[in-house]
Sequence to fold (502 residues):
Amino acid sequence: MTRLVVVSNRVPVPGDRSPAAGGLAIGLADAVTAGSLWFGWSGRRGHTTSTEASVTKHRDITYATIDLAEADYRHFYVGFSNGVLWPLLSYRLGQVNFRRADYAGYRVVNEAFATALRPLLRSDDLIWIHDYQLLAVGHALRTLGAEQRIGFFLHTPFPPPAIFCALPRAAELLEALCACDLVGFHTADYRDAFLQCVSVLLDTPTDADGSFTFRGRRVRAIVDPIGIDVGGFAATAARSVGNATAQRLANSLGGRPLAVSADRLDYAKGLPNRVEALDHLFASHPEHRNHLIFLQIAAPSREELAVYRALRRELDRTVGDINGRYSEADWTPVRYLTRTVGRSTLAAYYRLARLGVVTPLRDGMNLVAKEYIAAQNSADPGVLILSRFAGAAEDLTDALIVNPFDSEEIAEAMHHGLAMPLDERQARHKSLLARIRASFARQFCLTFLAALRSDGAEVPGPKTAPETGTPRRALEARPPRRSDHVAANRAVLAMASGGLPH
Ligand code: ADQ
Fold:
């Protein structure tokens, strides 16, 4: 039987210190079934980067990990992945800090992944590589002779050529990615942007179905939005809301409405703008003073990078400023937790909140938006405020959609959400729930693997979403905007050619 091999930067090896809060492990839980192999970095840093994986088995799933040398970790993870690729893919060119040594270290670690994985592979394995840290692993595997079908899923946005080509070596990295047979994205916009980059930077025509031929290989780009286990999360929220921890929060509100946000403490998540929105809200709608309580749960992230430490200081200051100016002796507007909280507690907090405020400046999908919807009590649901620049906004159009760069607009949406009558909240929630049920977690995996298994012609797989019976939408390819990438923009090509390997 064909075996699934998942490759991701971090691997949730049972019994190990678990990776930081993030959507990947949760999103993949349905794919990694008995018999699968999950390969990645152990999270350990030492003197050398392993050439052989350390292998353990748990409940018939094999986990294989390598350690990284401290210097490799610094170049690969801190320097290039999070100092260059993350800001680039999040449209934050000002934060990109490119150094050739970091790029070289990135390629070295991607090659180390391939070297340690190669001997573990069987000829009919399906290989599924995840996220921006591992863009070149497919290419490295091919160099070592791997002929298996290789798929890649990008969990971040993918920017258009005008942004992507600012990356030195952009074309080289794109070429490496095109060693895969299948490349998946959360939204049609990202998929189209990728195809435009292929067309412009690699001078390769793409077809209307998202396929193209590069160096003799047929590559296909698909849209496959990640989802959550809606029923499971809803049940967790309904159950946990009665727990002592959740009840402590509920009792502390004293009947006041709660707004909640939960994010990694990352500049792409738009946290300072969101807190500034409260300033506008209290200034323009004083009835919310001494009333609304805003709970920000911010999980520290990537603290090796100065820009993340600076963000934390900025947020500390902004929250302190708002609390200093608006607090009363018996009311503090912002409760600010810089830590992760357990999933059931988080689910309960979402359920208690009248507003879910999800305002990233850019986000591949954003699972918090979906979790907030799933956690609501349908009889008396809260209101989701959602950034138009989260991938989730493509589908969740019945949320209050805001521009996250406009704090006053976020404030108006908060006011609107707090005043929204029950029947409108119910109608919006019903529609949002139907949307998240139509692209639930399991379908994300099934759709990707069905496309990976096929040779690019017909894509088998679930025709309906088991949770709802609604027709499958994931592969409804919006035709790529070919007009955009027909000979697109010679100026862009000229800029990009600085990074061409030839
Ligand atoms: P992330 O950037 O990590 O994921 P997100 O999709 O919101 O963002 O997933 C975060 C997960 O961590 C959610 O399940 C959330 O509940 C949890 N979480 C967030 N803050 C937390 C906290 N303080 N304590 C506990 N748990 C917390 C990347 C991309 C996203 C994409 C996912 C999946 O950046 O755009 O949606 O991968 O593809």
